[in-house]
Amino acid sequence: MFTKAKNIDQAFRQVRIFCILMLVCSLIITCVAIVKSYSIVTSMQEKVYILANGKVLDAYASDRKDNVPVEARDHIRTFHKYFFTLDPDDKAIQQTITKALYLADGSAKRQYDDLRETGYYSNLISGNINQTINVDSVVVSTADYPFRFRCYATQEIVRPTTVTKRSLITEGALRNVSRSDNNPHGFLIERWSTIENRDLKTENRR
């Protein structure tokens, strides 16, 4: 009788331990599943699919601080491209300069006004002169805010009879502003100045 009672008590304890172990295992599996599901959802939210030329490409979201140097350099290149790429057409000049002035503060507007007052743009139009720019390198210091930069570029001025190569070096600072269609990088160039703009060589056109 006592042996049967002892066996029943032992079996009950075993069943209880087994149930407790199963409950603990279920809790562990549930926690692991929740954590994995959360990480998968988070990674999927950071992934964006882009359709380009009929192909699906992956893009991943990241913090802006990871891309500040890249975005800053592209902002500076874009500004210089708009400001210094000029055709002998008044409307074309106005369009590109307007795009450039969205990316900079009054320091760029003052340089534009100075060039206009000296007849620079009128001479381009009357002389059928094209001006293009190739940005060689942009150095941005993100150690301090606003971010200081220096831009090294080469200009090509094509006249009806000659082609002139010029060296251009500018510097300034970048501060953060809201992103918009006119300013997708969310930077504004300020205290912009030209520290070198000299002829390198002039060749006759064939």
Descriptive account of the structure:
By secondary structure, the protein is of the alpha+beta class. The strands form 2 sheets. It has a 4-stranded antiparallel beta sheet, with helices on one face. It is rod-shaped and about 110 Å long. Helix 2 packs antiparallel against helix 3 (90-101). It has 2 domains: 2-48; 64-204, Roll (Nuclear Transport Factor 2, Chain: A), CATH 3.10.450. Helices cover 47% and strands 33% of the residues. The protein starts with a helix and ends with a strand.
CATH architecture of the largest domain: Roll
Write down the domain tally. Answer: 2
Q: What is the CATH H-level superfamily of the largest domain?
A: VirB8 protein
Helix percent band: 40-55%
Element pattern in H and E: HEEHHHHEEEE
The class by helix and strand makeup works out as alpha+beta
Total beta-strand segments: 6
Tally of individual helices:
5
Q: How large a portion of the residues is in β-strands, by DSSP E?
A: 25-35%
Distance between the termini: 120 Å
Rg of Cα set:
32 Å
